[in-house]
UniProtKB/TrEMBL annotation:
Source organism: Dokdonella soli
PROSITE patterns on file: FKBP_PPIASE
Ranges for domain PPIase FKBP-type: 156-241
Protein family: Belongs to the FKBP-type PPIase family.
Source organism phylogeny: Bacteria, Pseudomonadati, Pseudomonadota, Gammaproteobacteria, Lysobacterales
InterPro entries: PPIase_dom_sf (IPR046357), PPIase_FKBP_dom (IPR001179), PPIase_FKBP_N (IPR000774), PPIase_FKBP_N_sf (IPR036944)
Reactions accelerated catalytically: [protein]-peptidylproline (omega=180) = [protein]-peptidylproline (omega=0)
SUPFAM superfamilies: FKBP-like
EC identifiers of the protein: 5.2.1.8
Protein name as catalogued: Peptidyl-prolyl cis-trans isomerase
Signal peptide annotation: 1-20
Length: 271
């Protein structure tokens, strides 16, 4: 908790520190003008701001703490007065509390993982019987919404796509459309369901992929998704981008041209 409070206080003054360190910031006065005395900020406003930051940082602990007791400890510590716990006792309480919170999170994760797994299994069983839905040997399901005429990417290729990712209840967790630009990433750097699904597609295609948890993030999914979640992606394959792999005909036509350096692979968070 002490670290949390410190972090909250640090966040409260982050803006001020950033402005002070910004070399592009305009000086308070012109170089040739005498500095004017600073007007002190209203203490109540500063206190409110700090309290708001601390409150936000402790929101997840609201059921585990007594705010009035916390205020007493905070005030006594700031004044250098004796607190209800010694430093050694506080360290012991912190360790036990962290262990308690960790156990609580593990239990909550297991409940969520079991529920998501059961929901995903039922969803895929029902979805499998829908018209047009195909299932691969791995358990990946897909629906062709539009078939393109271009090439198919290989597992080692870098692709350019637009996509929308949702959970099986329709809740959106990611979208290149919302960002206003397609995503580019190597197929060997994404989840198994994406790597397999994209290799089924030709450039210009649009598929809907139904990805079982074991082909997605499994139990280690990011917070917005949740453990053992089955995911649904609408994917448009816009192109295959491997700029360092020049066709032989192009290389022969320009023998004197210097081959472009292979650019660093763009980040492609596992979808």
């Amino acid at each position: 908790m002490q670290k949390t409070l410190v972090a909250a206080l640090a966040a409260s003054f982050a803006i001020g520190s950033a402005v002070a360190a910004d070399p592009a910031a305009k000086p308070a006065v012109a170089p040739a003008t005498a500095a004017k005395p600073a007007v002190p900020l209203d203490k109540n406003k500063v206190s409110t701001m700090v309290g708001m930051d601390i409150g936000r940082s402790l929101a997840q602990l609201k059921d585990d703490i007594d705010v009035k007791v916390m205020e007493q400890a905070l005030e006594a510590t700031m004044k250098g007065e004796k607190t209800a716990l010694t430093q050694e006792e506080a360290l012991q309480v912190r360790q036990e509390f962290m262990q308690q919170m960790q156990a609580k999170r593990v239990a909550e994760q297991k409940v969520a993982a079991d529920k998501n797994k059961a929901d995903g299994t039922k969803f895929l069983a029902d979805n499998k019987a829908k018209p047009g839905v195909k299932t691969t040997a791995s358990g990946l399901q897909y629906l062709v919404e539009k078939e393109g005429t271009g090439a198919k990417p290989k597992a080692t290729d870098t692709v350019k796509v637009n996509y929308l990712g949702t959970k099986i209840d329709g809740e959106k967790f990611d979208s290149s459309y919302d960002r206003g630009q397609p995503a580019t990433f190597p197929l060997n750097g994404v989840i198994k369901g994406w790597s397999e699904g994209l290799q089924l597609m030709t450039v210009g295609s649009k598929y809907k992929l139904f990805v079982p948890a074991d082909l997605a993030y499994g139990e280690n999914a990011p917070g917005p998704i949740g453990p053992n979640a089955t995911l649904v992606f609408e994917v448009e394959l816009l192109g295959i981008e491997n700029p360092a792999e020049k066709p032989a005909a192009e290389a022969a036509a320009k023998p004197a041209a210097k081959a472009p350096a292979k650019p660093a692979a763009k980040a492609g968070d596992k979808k």
